[in-house]
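agent> call fold_tool(seq_1)
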Amino acid sequence: MADLRHDIPATTGAGAGEGLPGDPFAQDEPGALLVRAHALLAEHPVADGYSGLPWALRYLPWYDLELGEAAVDTDVPRMREGHVGVVFWSLHLPEGPGGDRATAATLEQLDQVRTVIEAHPEGLRLVGTAGQVIDARNCGRVAVVPGPAYAAALDDSLGILRVLRTLGLRVLTLTGTAWAGERGLSRFGEEVVREMNRIGVLADVSGACAATVERTLALSKTPVLCTRSAARELRPHPANLTDELLTALGAAKGVCMVPLTAEQTGPAIRDVADHLDHVRDVAGPQCVGLSGTYDSGAVHPRDLADASCYPHLIAELLRRGWTEPELSLLTWGNVQRVLRSADFMVRAAQRRA
């Protein structure tokens, strides 16, 4: 465990080190805020919406995630230091969604996920439901959810979708196909979303066009994720969401998982916190989550270099006046709610069958 006396890094710029109006903890010292952040995360650990670790490990000749691995941003000791309770392992392809071997490559990465988890049984556990996430946490393991994967992996087949779900896939990104493109969802795309609801695969609309996002929100009976989206009002990145889409996502009880990347949010902790503030204010505290995007090739903001750094971000949010209920939703509660909703829909579909 990291030394809890270590001071949170100082920020620069307007308002640095000053309490915000109405913040009851405005006079807290940075070290005290960090102690409070660790205590809060011990009760409400981080659900990290995106990690590129499976691909990052693919060509390493040797690694030990339980002992610690300097060649990557994520290992078990750093996840424990950062209080990560569950992490979504991306099955995305470096060449993008349009690769010639999308289905085969996704299957290979699912196999890689299982291989890595089986090699680290004391630290990691493969999960597929909200209940299994809780069980993993109670056993002292980090829960690993396979996904998101690109929709191209389906090869336009609902049968392949069902097979991927059987093999563990839990999240699918609805971009990069003819049925989820610039014009939104086609009739087949709508059938994909309905089948995803039925079998418990969550829809991820990060990077999707507005028409696809809007139709998916209207059609899906389970909450929709944006696994790597921040506020376009603050930073005009194509994967970030407009205020209109954030409002719609909040109304549909979806979750916008703000990425810790310099490209999408900015180069410092305060920039990430600005995006979290904005999403909370526009869509509501029930709509905001975290996405480390570690081991994805992204450049991270200062002082958020790896999976151990979440307490520093939570300390900054405490400084800004975020309440414990809001932070518990941000780190853990919102993702658990989405997983439970999907599990409920699966059970309901089984009863109807």
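agent> call fold_tool(seq_2)
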Amino acid sequence: MQRRLLHHRRMNTATRTSLSSRLKQETRPLHTRVEQSGVMAALLRGRLSLPGYCALLRNLHAIYEALEAGLGRHPVDARLWRPELSRVQPLEQDLDRLHATPWRTHGPLMPATVAYVERLTLLGRTEPVLLLAHAYLRYLGDLHGGQVLARLVSRQFALDGQAGTAFYAFGDPAQVEALKADFRAGLDALPLTTEQADAFVAEACQAFRLHRQLFEELAR
């Protein structure tokens, strides 16, 4: 009987879907809808104005400030939070380069961004591990689509070389692939119970919904 129980436990462990796989599978429909929403759809179709793009960066900057402040206050696996991933300073470089006026005072935040920042701030105080669900959306999304978006943005706004696209710069292709692989491995190494993993995936889904709301507001 004991041998059968041990075998059963090993089978459960072997067949359990990894957190990174669950996140990819269960957020895929939301991911598609977000890409087709509001300002992001306009950007991908080459129809976004430069002021509209700066408004997007301004709001993302506020989100990253809250996210990275929360991550910096808690012990986090280095694969999930390291200096190379931080996007606050690159966003500031791009906004300084592209925004026609002082962006901190002339770039109002959308209601969706204010709500998102409040959510991240709350998680940082009460459930910091769930901040990593938002890090999953942002950092892996930036690493996956960054090079394509960098070329698109540079061409659409006639930028000189890499000027104005620091947000998408994570190093050479080998470094980008290493960061992606490390991030997934870090996610899969999180010591979560089944209930905690469910909450993590649910939080990632909510992050996609919050992004969709923001992108729709920016398009109005």
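agent> summarizing second result for user.
The two ends are 64 Å apart (CA to CA). The domain at 18-218 is CATH 1.20.910.10 (Heme Oxygenase; Chain A).
agent> awaiting next instruction.
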